[in-house]
Amino acid sequence: MNFIKDQLADYGVSEQMTGYLSNIIMVLFIALLSVLANLIAKKIVLKIIIHVISKDRYAWDNIVLEKKVFHKLSHLAPAFIIYYSASIFPLYRVFIEKSALTYMIIVTITVFDALLNAIDAIYRSFEVSKIRPIKGYIQVAKIILFIIGAIVVISNLIGQNPLIILSGLGALSAVLMLIFKDSILGLVAGVQLSSNDMVRVGDWIEMPKYNADGDVIDITLNTVKVMNFDKTITMIPSYALISDSFKNWRGMQVSGGRRIKRSVHIDTSSICFCTKEMMEEFQKIHYLTDFIKARLNEINIYNIEHQINTESKVNGRHLTNVGVFREYIHEYLRNHPKIHKDMTLIVRQLAPEDNGLPLEIYAFSNDTNWVVYESVQADIFDHIFAVVPIFGLRVFQNPTGHDIARLKESKEYSSGY
Fold this sequence. Notes:
The protein contains 18 helices and eight strands.
C-alpha cells in the first residue's frame, strides 16, 4: 500500500486522491490475485489431480471426483488470499476477515457434505450395502455437520466462543428433541433394522397398514421407500417397521421355491368305490399303473386273510375314485419339471364344506419369479380340472344362470312343450 502511495505521489497526485486511488488499486490487485489463484487451482492443480486419479486402478477415488469434492475444495484458494489481505485495510479488517472466514466455513461444510456423499456412493458399490445400508448414518452425520457449521458461523459473526453458544443450546434441548423427533426415531429404527437384518434394499415386503406391497428401493434416516407392483411408491416411516409387523418375502426368494397352496372342491355326490371297469381304465394311466397294481394286490391279500365277503362294497378294503385321483395328482406333481423336489409336497383332504370336499395342493415351484410362478400354478390346475371327469368326479360350483336355464329347458322338454 505504501509503495502504491509513493508512486502516486511521484506522479503528482494529491494526498487526498492518493488514499482513494491506492485503495482502489489494491482492491483490484487483490481481486486479480484471487481470480488468478482460482484459475490456478481449477485449471492446473485440479486437472493434475483428475489426470492422476483417472490413471490409477482404484474406483473409489473416481467416485470422490464425481461428487466434486476437489472442485468445491478449490474455492478456498481465493478466500485465503482475501482473508490474509484484510490487514491492508485497517478500517475494514474485522469485516473482511469475518466475511472471508464465514465463506471458508461454508465451503468447508460443502466439501464435507460432498465427501459424505462420496463415502455413501463408494459403500453402495459393495454387496454388503444391501444388507447393511449406511444412508441413515450418513444423514445423521450431515445433520451434525450442518448444526456444528451453523454454530461456528454464528460464533464467528458475533465474535463469541462456539462453546458459549453450545451451552445456550441446553435450554433448547426440549425444542430440538421435538424438531428432530422423527430423525431420532429413524436413527434408532435404522440401527435395529440393520443390526437385526430385518430389511434390505431389494427385499419384497408386504405391509397392508401402509398399502405397501413391493420391493424396497431405498432406506433413509426417516423413511423406507417401497415400489409397489403397480409402480406406485409408498413411503413407510423407518420406526414403523420396528413398531408394526410386516412380511418380508426374502426367505422365499433365497430358498429358491415359492409355495403353491390352492384347493379343488369336489362334489361329494360324485365320490364312489372304484368298479372293475374303472380299475382297468385307471391302469392305463401312466402315473397310476404301478400304484393300482400294488394297491389291488395289497387289498386282495388283506381281504383274503380276513375272510372278507367282497360281494358287498361296505365290507373290507376298496379303492375310491377320489383316493385314486388324489394319488394321481401327487404323482403328477412329483414328475412335474417346475415343482421343487426337495420341498414339501402334499395333496390332502380338508374338512368337507358347503362347497364340497376340498383337495388341497401344497407344493413349491422351483422358480420364484412371479410370472413363471403364476404360469406354473395355472398350468397345474388347468390339467387338474381337465382330468377330474376321467375319475368319475365332478368339480363343485354354485348354480349359474346357465344351469338354471338348462334345468328349465329339460323340464319343458320332458313335459312335451
